[in-house]
Amino acid sequence: MRNEPDYLLYERIYRVIEQVPHGMVSTYGDIAAIVGGGCDARTVGYALREMPENRADSVPWQRIINKAGDISTRGLRQRQLLEAEGIAFDARDHVIMARFRWAGPTPEWATANGFNLLPPREEGEQLSIF
DNA sequence: GAATTGACGGGGC
DNA sequence: AGCCCCGCCAATT
Q1: What is the crossing angle of helices A41-49 and A6-17, to 10°?
Q2: Which nucleotide is nearest to A76 (CA to C1')?
Q3: Which of A42, A81, A89, A112 fits a 20 to 30 Å CA distance from A64?
Q4: Which pLDDT score, from 0 to 100, does residue A7 have?
Q5: C-alpha distances in angstroms, A71 versus A61, A62, A122?
Q6: Which of residues 7 to 66 on A have a Cβ less than 7 angstroms from any strand C atom?
């Protein structure tokens, strides 16, 4: 018996995903890092796969892709939905991560809701908004 | 309960 | 960029 029911863990995952803004994407690993508490990338993938249809209305599942920047759910209209948000793909069908990757929740929100922040990324790469 | 699979990630090469 | 290996957690067989 777990101290925390699985459905509650999924709820936390969905809640974080809801924070990913329109026109941006995040990765399974990033979401897991924010959720914390023994959550990993695969768990996020599981939560999304098990997510009931009605949840899809508020949870932007399409914005969650793998770290390589390519979509896993081939066949679904994921790419179509992302392009509709203005997210661009390169010639290899990969999202340009350096440009569309979400930097994580605000410190205020994370603290207020009991989530982690994304570790700062070093490389000179950053999401310059212009 | 072991083995396998899965909308995964990081480190090596 | 790719491929391989290993670790991770949950569900299924």
Answers
A1: 90
A2: B7
A3: A112
A4: 66
A5: 11, 9, 25
A6: 9, 38-43, 46, 50
pLDDT(A99) > 70:
yes
Strand partners, A25: A101
pLDDT band at A104 (very low <50, low <70, confident <90, very high): very high
Length A67 CA → B13 C1' (Å): 20
Q: Give strand pairing partners of A101.
A: A25
Report the percent of chain A where pLDDT is more than 70: 85
Strand C nucleotides with an atom less than 7 Å from a protein beta carbon: 1-2, 7-11
DSSP string, A106-123: -HHHHHHHT-PPPPPP-S
